[in-house]
Amino acid sequence: MEQILRNFFLFLSKNKFFTKLAKKYGLRFGAGRFVAGESVENAAKVIKQLNQKGMVVTVDHLGEFIDSEQEARQAADECVEMIEKIAEHQLDSQLSLKMTSMGLDISEALVMENMRKILAAGKRHGVFVTIDMEDYERCQKTIDIFKELKEEYDNIGTVIQAYLYRTVGDIEELNAYHPNLRLVKGAYKESPKVAFPDKQDVDENYKKIIKMHLLNGNYTAIATHDDEMIAYTKHLEKEHGIPRDQFEFQMLYGIRVERQEELTAEGYKMRVYVPYGTDWYGYFMRRLAERPANVAFVLKGVFGK
Ligand SMILES: Cc1cc2nc3c(=O)[nH]c(=O)nc-3n(C[C@H](O)[C@H](O)[C@H](O)COP(=O)(O)OP(=O)(O)OC[C@H]3O[C@@H](n4cnc5c(N)ncnc54)[C@H](O)[C@@H]3O)c2cc1C
């Protein structure tokens, strides 16, 4: 049943009609639990609250189905605006973004132009930028873009997904760049031809790449809500004497908030991924797919308390 629900929500997340409808009608159905409002101001307020609780942030301007050059340029401008807001309010926040929202499905030249604009603004204001990883079809292109930009800018990182068979090879190859990587299990529906279908294999591969990247001496963001992976990282920290300034934990806004606070209290760097914007629908559906138990929460939002 859980698998059926998961596939159903992933299917819904790709629906253009619902995406447009959701944009028109604003944050609904309890999405506000996972999305920090629709404007830059809303996001800045949430970042400030998290900073006051001792947590750092990576903020993401949500954007799905970018079909025109103009929309991609607008998305890039919004990223620059967010970077300037971070600087203006002295917020402790990085920026996350997706290559499709920068125009990956339109032209790679457009992506590079948009990214250089954002990275230059980030460099000016000391804001680090992480390229989120999307579906398998876009993985190689994303890695190629990352490599090219990493030669020019040092305020850039990207994400590697443990569920892909290619991942160990990517970690090995990227080591030459000493990259700051966010390691995740992977959020998209992929074919068994390219990704482990079994959760146990994904978990094993996740542990493997956490260990590899840390022992290679690279900065590592362990982005998970899974206690087993957190405990494994702490075990590596002790066994190999890994300094705490070489890694951080990351979790999504609104998910396992108490655990986020506990890790902060234990002295670990805890970064919260804070999405905002009018394009909240696809992100919200992917969160429901990850944990269909959240549907009960949504139903409450629809039918009242
Ligand atoms: C900061 C951040 C950035 C991310 N960026 C990307 C990206 O760029 N590309 C990408 O593909 N994916 C990304 N992801 C999503 C990621 O790939 C996973 O889909 C997502 O994190 C779920 O996997 P998990 O590791 O949290 O654990 P899961 O395997 O989903 O869950 C393991 C265990 O964690 C606990 N748990 C999980 N969720 C909850 C919850 N809501 N409440 C209570 N307990 C819970 C439960 O005990 C559960 O059994 C990101 C995730 C984070 C945290």
Characteristics of this structure?
305 residues; TIM Barrel; eight-stranded parallel barrel; disordered C terminus; binds flavin-adenine dinucleotide
Number of strands: 8
* Structural class by sheet pairing and helices: alpha/beta
How much of the polypeptide forms β-strand, as a percent range?
A: 5-15%
Distance between the termini: 25 Å
CATH class: Alpha Beta
Query: In what order do the strands lie side by side in the largest sheet?
Result: 1-2-3-4-5-6-7-8
Mean pLDDT: 90
Q: How many separate domains?
A: 1
Total number of helical segments? 12
Catalytic activity: L-proline + a quinone = (S)-1-pyrroline-5-carboxylate + a quinol + H(+)
GO molecular function, one term: proline dehydrogenase activity
EC number: 1.5.5.2
Protein name: proline dehydrogenase
How would you explain this protein's 3D organization?
Helices cover 51% and strands 13% of the residues. It has an 8-stranded parallel β-barrel with strand order 1-2-3-4-5-6-7-8, surrounded by 8 helices. The protein has helices spanning 2-13, 16-25, 40-52, 69-88, 108-125, 139-152, 167-174, 199-215, 227-240, 257-265, 281-290, 294-303, and strands spanning 56-61, 93-97, 129-131, 156-161, 181-184, 220-223, 247-252, 270-276. Helix 1 (2-13) runs antiparallel to helix 11, helix 7 (167-174) packs parallel to helix 8 (199-215) and helix 8 runs parallel beside helix 9 (227-240). It has a single domain, classed as TIM Barrel. The longest helix has 20 residues, at 69-88. Strand 6 (220-223), helix 9 and strand 7 form a beta-alpha-beta unit. Flavin-adenine dinucleotide binds at residues 132-133, 159, 161, 182, 184-188, 223-226, 250-252, 255-256, 273, 290-291. Flavin-adenine dinucleotide (FAD) binds next to strand 4, strand 5 and strand 7.
